[in-house]
Amino acid sequence: EKAAQNFNFILILGSGGVADQSIPITGQLSATALSRFMEALRLYNANPNATLVVSGSGFGDIKSGAELQAILAISIGIPKNKIIRSDNTLDTDDEAKLMSEIIKGHHAVLVTSATHIDRALGLFHKYGQSPVPSPANYLAPIRAGDIPLHYNIPSAYNLNKSTVAWH
């Protein structure tokens, strides 16, 4: 898999968190945000000259989702000057509009959840930009081996997948 493509920007769409200073930064971000961040980190390691663009409001919390992602990035050694924060984006349309202005004329990659990538790309196209998609947080990966019987038992986890699909 070729991750190095000389990207100028790695765009990470926000996915929430809670600024609970009693736990590590990895516990403050949502599981979805962490999955997206890990994909962005993989891309950053292959494209170390790229700038991360992190987004997401705090929705009333003392720190925005973008700030939490930036704190995580800095804690693992990504220089602060390689991070652009978009703290006040309230939804994907806001993110696409603002990030489209930032990446205009540059090679960029978009990281969001696999279930969300098509919708997000459509919004970027609305603003005249076409970042390369790099989905994360797959909810239905294809197994290579046998599927255990317990996978067919109804569960709250699978009900959540239905909720995500409807969203």
Placed side by side, the strands forming the largest sheet appear as 3-2-1-4-5
Distance between the termini: 30 Å
Mean pLDDT: 90
Structural class: alpha/beta
Helical element count? 6
Question: Which percent band covers the strand fraction?
Answer: 5-15%
- Total DSSP E strands: 5
Can you describe this structure?
It contains six helices and five strands. By secondary structure, the chain is α/β, with parallel strands linked by helices. It has a five-stranded parallel β-sheet with strand order 3-2-1-4-5, sandwiched between helices. β2, α3 and β3 (83-86) form a beta-alpha-beta unit. α4 (92-103) crosses α5. It starts with 8 loop residues before the first strand and ends with a helix. The model has no long low-confidence stretch (mean pLDDT 90).
Quick overview:
The chain is an alpha/beta fold and 167 residues long. It has helices at 25-28, 31-46, 65-75, 92-103, 117-126, 156-166; strands at residues 9-12, 51-55, 83-86, 108-111, 132-133.
What is this structure's SSE topology?
Blueprint: E1 9-12, H1 25-28, H2 31-46, E2 51-55, H3 65-75, E3 83-86, H4 92-103, E4 108-111, H5 117-126, E5 132-133, H6 156-166
Parallel strand pairs: 1-2, 1-4, 2-3, 4-5
Helix pairs in contact: 4-5
Provide key terms for this protein:
single chain; 167 residues; alpha/beta; 6 helices; globular
